[in-house]
Amino acid sequence: MDTIETIDVIKCPDCESISYLSYQELYDDEWISLQCNCLTCKAKFQINYRAVGIDIIGPDREQREIKRQLRKIFLDLLKRDRDLRIKYDQLIDSECEENKLKEIVKYLLNEYSPAFEDKLLPGREEKEKYLADAIQVLYEIDP
Ligand SMILES: [Zn+2]
Q: 65 with 50, same domain?
């Protein structure tokens, strides 16, 4: 891994003032650059950030995390269980018909109950709803 120079406090390279305003943001695959204007000496300078992570923000963060985890479990089982694969193919053929979706969810929770027992996950009824949502999202991404 490359070493990244970390800076605690960003100061104007000209006068070392810490008051500045950013007026534009530029980015590519790796870097995010903030164009800045020093409020003390009016010098223009640029702060370069390296993207080190991506995170979900917002009120439904927890729900998305639950769905993400359910999708992961589902995809893992899909690779290993032929019956599940057949059911999923049928779901795709039906263009995600609600009955077929319910059937898969029921099958998963009956056959693989322990796989869905993580303490992060909600109770059975809610879990059915989340799991249906998670599978539906998968279908929408990759029908
Ligand atoms: Zn300055």
A: no
